[in-house]
Specification:
The protein is an alpha/beta fold. The protein has one domain: Nucleotidyltransferase, domain 5 (2-Layer Sandwich), CATH 3.30.420.140. Helix content is 37%, strand content 19%. The protein is built from 4 helices and 6 strands, in the order E-E-E-H-E-H-E-H-H-E. It has helices spanning 56-67, 87-103, 116-126, 131-157; strands at residues 16-21, 25-31, 38-45, 72-77, 108-112, 163-164. A 6-stranded mixed sheet has the order 3-2-1-4-5-6, with helices on both faces. The termini are far apart. It holds the Pfam family RuvX.
């Protein structure tokens, strides 16, 4: 009997983009082409009308994805410590859905990001960044943590991280809704 190693998951090469969706700013991070290390890219100001069909922040993030020739985008899903989803998670889901339509066929995935902003503030404080300067870079730092976590999870499991955002309006299959 011929038993060969599974070949269902090819090595995925290419740059990934990480997004931390906030109510005021959006942090953007990117990986190297080998998807090993996440680094900060930019902080994008949120459009005052986030429901606009073509909001300025959505267009700027889409331009970054195109400029970096990203093969995947990872958006942080801020769940509570108990794993529930509140208004911030709903806002991240909505943003991820709008972004996935805008940048298709580049896939967008939602990944759990509990406490990344708290960790980002702590890391910045420990590295000597003062409080006023933190506001302008904390979203980027949170995006780095979100993306690095997703890269590490994929490397450890051999599977894409989180939950695939579908552009057809249907809910993802159960196996795509990993928590």
């Amino acid at each position: 009997m011929n038993q060969s190693a599974p070949t269902s998951m090819p090595t995925r090469h290419g740059r990934r983009v990480g997004i931390d969706v906030g109510s005021v700013r959006i942090g953007v991070a990117a990986s190297d082409p080998d998807a090993l290390l996440a680094t900060p890219v930019r902080t994008v100001a949120r459009d005052p009308d986030p429901t606009a069909a073509a909001s300025a922040d959505l267009e700027e993030v889409a331009a970054i994805v195109t400029e970096l020739a990203a093969v995947e985008v990872v958006v942080g899903l801020p769940r509570t410590l108990a794993g529930a989803e509140g208004p911030a998670a709903e806002a991240a889901r909505t943003y991820a859905g709008r972004l996935s339509v805008r940048i298709a066929p580049v896939p967008v995935r939602l990944v759990d990001e509990r406490l990344t902003t708290v960790d980002a503030h702590r890391n910045l404080r420990e590295s000597g960044v003062d409080g006023r300067r933190q506001r302008s870079v904390v979203d980027q730092a949170a995006a780095v943590l979100i993306l690095q976590g997703a890269l590490d999870a994929e490397r450890n499991s051999g599977r894409p991280p989180g939950e695939l955002v579908r552009t057809d309006g249907r809910k993802p299959r159960t196996k795509d809704r990993r928590r």
